[in-house]
Amino acid sequence: MLKISDLHKSYPIGDSSLHVLKGINLSVESGEMVAIMGSSGSGKSTLLNIIGILDEADSGVYILDGVEIKNLTEKKAAVYRNKFLGFIFQSFNLINYKNAIENVALPLYYQGLKRKERQKKALFHLGKVGLADWADHLPSELSGGQKQRVAIARALAANPKLLLADEPTGALDTQTSYEIMAFLQQLNDEGKTLLIVTHEEDIAAMCKRVVRLRDGVILEDKNVEQVRASQYV
What we know:
The chain is of the alpha/beta class. It contains seven helices and ten strands.
């Protein structure tokens, strides 16, 4: 599904540069649920941005679903993002003036689907996250947990190969966090591949594998006995 070899990334700072990723090697197989952990400055956000085709490495190899990701135009990068990836963010990133169904339908618009088909698929995915009855509600009328469910439905709408979640529970209380993780585990049970960036140990324990970064290198990469979130819901 995903293979990264000897990945390096630096950012210029004045006359010098900051070496953020220092030779990352990482493989993720289809159907895995992987937590990426690390303190602020460890490089986890930079790594996620490169995996998400939002940034490009300085050197190294990145292969996603058999396709090497390099030297992409912005247009091609957008096509690949839409084809391969679904994004879930800490801040939900919903469009405030669009209702739930319109937010979920957005990736399908970029895939060129006709309006009626977009609406049908969007409603299906809202139903999947238990929010079909909230289709006409604006984000301002939804709780934090409901907003994240809409964001998950939007991420699923284009049927991505890989779901990338950046601190998906960071803005939620503990109970709602576990409800969201129970749903993400259910998606993984159904075969979805998930990569979850988190700084919370209890959330990482709900994945099947934990990768720890420090100062731009992988410190630890191990399979863990998954804690099921449903027992806390």
